[in-house]
């Protein structure tokens, strides 16, 4: 819980920072550089396959951070950043400006809406909005917002409308430690307390969160 509080403090500091600068990626240049991304993420950034993330409408700062981390994962042999056999290899040849441009382009697009199964709405909403104090699980909404829009400055991703399959796989990776590029290990700490059922419910709930 201390890590959650620290992360929220960082978020508030970022939101109040007077010297924040605009993201300097070029949308048009990013569109030209995005051709290879379409194979998995779709030409409009809405991945047609459930296991790949939708990146249309995602915060540019977040996309950029993930690309930097994925590249670092490859160069460090998985010791730093985020290691993914496919995406780390894709990020390797990208320059810093390439990553900013691609991030700016996909951020400018619209994420397609999803749906939440009726049988998970009630329990999913409770876990997302209130967490579970008895198990030390904070509300997801504390960082990702009541509508799941996240925060660009704090690099908390937009998770509403995301593919359930992708959300599920990432929560499982945070839980077992194979993904560890989260701020202060916050998501790892939370995911370790989630059961398989929790993860299934949250992933389905977020698919249609407005």
Automatic annotation (TrEMBL):
Residues 1-22 form the signal peptide. It comes from the Bacteria. The keyword Cytoplasm does not apply. Keywords: Electron transport, Heme, Iron, Metal-binding, Periplasm, Signal, Transport. Its main location: periplasm. It is found in: Periplasm. The keyword ATP-binding does not apply. Residues 25-110, 119-210 form the Cytochrome c domain. Transmembrane segments: none annotated. Pfam families: Cytochrom_C. This is Cytochrome c4.
């Amino acid at each position: 819980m201390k890590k959650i509080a620290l992360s929220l403090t960082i978020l508030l500091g970022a939101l109040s920072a007077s010297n924040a600068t605009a993201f300097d990626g070029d949308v048009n240049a990013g569109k030209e550089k995005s051709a290879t991304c379409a194979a998995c993420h779709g030409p409009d950034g809405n991945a047609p396959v459930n296991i790949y993330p939708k990146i249309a409408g995602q915060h540019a700062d977040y996309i950029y951070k993930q690309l930097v981390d994925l590249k670092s994962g490859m160069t460090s042999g998985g010791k730093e950043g985020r290691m993914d056999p496919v995406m780390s290899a894709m990020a390797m040849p990208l320059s810093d400006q390439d990553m900013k441009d691609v991030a700016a382009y996909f951020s400018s697009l619209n994420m397609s809406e999803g749906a939440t199964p009726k049988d998970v709405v009630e329990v999913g909403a409770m876990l997302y909005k209130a967490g579970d104090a008895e198990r030390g699980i904070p509300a997801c909404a504390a960082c990702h917002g009541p509508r799941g829009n996240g925060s660009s400055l704090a690099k908390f991703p937009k998770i509403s409308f995301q593919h359930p399959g992708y959300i599920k796989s990432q929560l499982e990776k945070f839980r077992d430690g194979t993904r560890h590029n989260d701020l202060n290990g916050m998501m790892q700490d939370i995911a370790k307390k989630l059961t398989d059922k929790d993860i299934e419910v949250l992933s389905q709930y977020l698919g249609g969160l407005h």
